[in-house]
Amino acid sequence: MIEEGSEIKLTEPYMLPSGEQRWLLTFKKRLTMPDGQLSVLGISVDITHQKLFEMQLAESYKELQRLTLHLENVRAEERAKDCAKSS
Questions:
Q1: Which of 10, 35, 39, 45 is most exposed, with minimal Cβ within 10 Å?
Q2: Rounded to whole angstroms, how far apart are CA atoms 36 and 33?
């Protein structure tokens, strides 16, 4: 990374000594010091709450899809019953 000068942005899980899982968003960027030496600036932010909300939202979306499919099936069954009564 230092030689290439590329920036890195990554999200990664980590475990606390207690066993609790947390999530970090990390940015790393090459820095050139005043004396010409190369160094790296790294900043990490704990995004655990955001990650948990994203996972909950994904689960809610899956549940909504499941319920929508169930509703469509019930409606189709009702239409089939109505057609059978009409015959």
A1: 35
A2: 5
